[in-house]
Amino acid sequence: MIDAKQAAGRRAAEMVEDGMVVGLGTGSTASQAIVALGERVRAGLKLRAAVSSSVASEELARRVGIAVTPFDDLDGPVDVTIDGADEVDPCFRLIKGGGGALVREKLLAVASRKMIVVADAAKMVATLGAFPLPVAVLPFSYRRTLARLQEIAPAPLRMRDGAPFVSDDGLYIADLALGRIEDPEGLYQRLRLTPGVADAGLFLGIAACVVVGGDDGRTEIRERG
């Protein structure tokens, strides 16, 4: 039996139609959608183009038979982007960036006619914030930026092998331990006005649909009203 992530990824891949331009997200559940989409491509599905939000997703796409086009080579919008989320609230507001690709993920999502989120049921929450909020910061003067973020909440720098984690865009990631976000829109505005912050992993008013996978392999499609 397939697990929740596989179920959500496969169901989202089934929503892709011939001739579409598809955005490929990043993360464990998005990867399941890429694998399933690759199966459909090998079975005859014709994509006009596919674009990726990370080096890892691009490499996976190529391995499963999906040709990837550089984002800036595209003319016009992306028809649909399939991506995961770390948390989804009832208003379809998201926390993303656990994999560190939040800047590219947002650029791809806002260029899309429709963003489909794939998630297991544990990612559906009443209020955002239990998952630390990723914030992408410029390496230049990053200690001063972290000090500004510490005025909002504890903001440890994400590390890997004893050094700062570096995103595909050359950015550092701070993970804000907020606990509960009462006003996502207000918080996002404050973060975007913080010098040194490139973007934050709050996706507000972007997701149109969530495919929720269950442990029994079933899926539920929830549309934003």
Short description:
By secondary structure, the chain is α/β, with parallel strands linked by helices.
What does this structure look like?
This protein is 27% helix and 26% strand. By secondary structure, it is an alpha/beta fold. The strands form four sheets. A six-stranded mixed β-sheet has the order 2-1-3-6-13-14. A three-stranded antiparallel β-sheet has the order 4-5-12, with no helix packed on it. α1 crosses α2. The protein is globular, with a radius of gyration of 17 Å. The two termini are 32 Å apart.
How large, in whole angstroms, is the Cα Rg?
17 Å
Strand order within the widest beta sheet: 2-1-3-6-13-14
Compute the number of helices: 6
The succession of helices and strands, N to C, reads: HEHEHEEEHEEHEEEHEEEE
- Given helix and strand content, the structural type is alpha/beta
State the separation between the terminal residues, measured CA to CA.
32 Å
Blueprint (SSEs and pairs):
Elements: H1 4-13, E1 21-24, H2 28-42, E2 49-52, H3 55-63, E3 78-84, E4 87-88, E5 94-95, H4 102-110, E6 112-120, E7 133-137, H5 142-150, E8 159-160, E9 163-164, E10 172-176, H6 184-192, E11 197-200, E12 202-203, E13 209-213, E14 219-223
Helix pairs in contact: 1-2
Can you give keywords for this protein?
225 residues; alpha/beta; six-stranded mixed beta sheet; 6 helices; 14 strands; 27% helix; globular
